[in-house]
Amino acid sequence: MSSQKGNVSRSRPQKHQNTFSFRNDKFDKSVQTKKINAKLHDGVCQRCKEVLEWRVKYSKYKPLSKPKKCVKCLQKTVKDSYHIMCRPCAYELEVCAKCGKKEEIVIPWRFPLLLSLECSRELMATTATIYWAQVILSPQPSK
Ligand SMILES: [Zn+2]
Ligand SMILES: [Zn+2]
């Protein structure tokens, strides 16, 4: 057995984490947690979905601080923790984005879903720009 199960001490996982790299984001932990909790585990198989949900439930889900390399297209396009493949690749190959196996995908990934749920800052910025452009350009203030 691995040493993982050996530790029975009840220390809470609230210890201050040492972040050695400077993080530029202004999101505080509660916002981060909310985001994680609201996360929809799409594009993965049942087993992987359960693993991800388990991680979220037990606060073991660590969001990526920067995109990871996709095993398929070799671009840094993986934005979801524990995924090995980026969404477009997994979608195209019809495989689970986490384990890479050809399993039935519980919540199929869709582009509009990505647009509304992905918390990519660039995307948010773009969306915000479009939104404000519409607000500014619209003759009537929408209230
Ligand atoms: Zn890819
Ligand atoms: Zn899977």
Task: Give a quick precis of the structure.
The protein is mostly helical. Helix content is 37%, strand content 0%.
How is this structure best described in words?
The protein is mainly alpha-helical and 143 residues long. The protein has one domain (31-135). It has 5 helices and no strands. The mean pLDDT is 77.
H/E element sequence? HHHHH
Number of domains: 1
Average pLDDT works out at: 77
The low-pLDDT segments are none
Number of distinct helices: 5
Which range does the strand content fall in? under 5%
Which small-molecule ligands are present, each listed once?
zinc ion
Helix content: 25-40%
| Shape descriptor | globular
Radius of gyration, CA atoms, in whole angstroms: 18 Å
Summarize the main sheet. none
Kindly name the structural category. Answer: mainly alpha
The tally of beta strands, per DSSP, is 0
**How far do the termini sit from each other?**
62 Å
Q: Keyphrases for this structure?
A:
binds zinc ion, mainly alpha, 5 helices, 0% strand, single chain, 143 residues
Chart the SSEs and their pairings.
Blueprint: H1 29-38, H2 46-57, H3 87-93, H4 111-117, H5 121-137
One zinc ion is lined by residues 44-45, 47-48, 96, 98-99, 101, 103.
InterPro entries: DUF2039
Pfam families: DUF2039 (PF10217)
